[in-house]
# Entry
Amino acid sequence: MIDERSERRIGLIQLHLAVLLAGGSGLFAKALAVGPDVLTAGRTVFGAASLLAFATLAGRRLVVRPARDAVGLLLCGFVLAAHWVTFFLAIQVSTVAVGLLAFSTFPLFTTLLEPAVFGERLRPTDVVLAAIVSLGLVLVVPSFDAGDGMVRGAFWGVVSALLFAALALASRSYNARQPALAIAFHQQLGAALITVPFALPSVASVSPGDWAGLVVLGVVFTAVGQGLAVASLRHLRARTVSVVFGLEPVYAIVLARLILHESPSPRTLLGGLLICGAAAGACLRREAPLESQR
# Structure
């Protein structure tokens, strides 16, 4: 039997791989000449299709019972779709660094919401880490002019963060009774159902190269990444998942520099250092055993 420490290690490995893929997904908002609606529809359609293909080949069950859980997961997919639309929009109106760093504030929302949802104790350390994340966001935004693209990017990034926090909490509630693959598939399917009608008018203008990018985004950076993130919740708390995802900008900024030649300002880097430092501190802090948290 795998002990608690080994389970936590497995969960962290799954989670960091998911964060790497999530960080890379932000680059598609700049690399592909399509809007946030097409990006989201493409990644969800191809993501759901790849999960279905994998389940079929592996003989894995995707049916969710009772029916109310299936409906609940599809509704979670609507939240997932809204998260991705705002996530891509944040990057397109600003930069990869600003969009990702603003999104990385979602530990603030998870920290405040998780104790109320699951009846867990809110610790002073969690509040301090959330405050550091908030200070980092203030440094990331160069001004508070609503017409500034960086400010709008930060705003949409924070909205995306709130939606992701809600999704992480909802996924944890289903994890105890549903397979991770089934959870990921139904969320992808729900997101596809809500976004495809909005994306259809723009489909004819998508180039072959952008179609190829959407396939990679959906299969590798979405299906595989989300599956790893959901699976990690079996071993980790949603709050831990949220703070480790705060490291996502590290991967994204490095990739944006190498691929898009996009360099953040020193002030943005300082804000990012605070945000990522808080995330790393929360990741390294010893947690109470999972069983005692329920």
Observations:
- Confidence is low (pLDDT under 50) at residues 286-294.
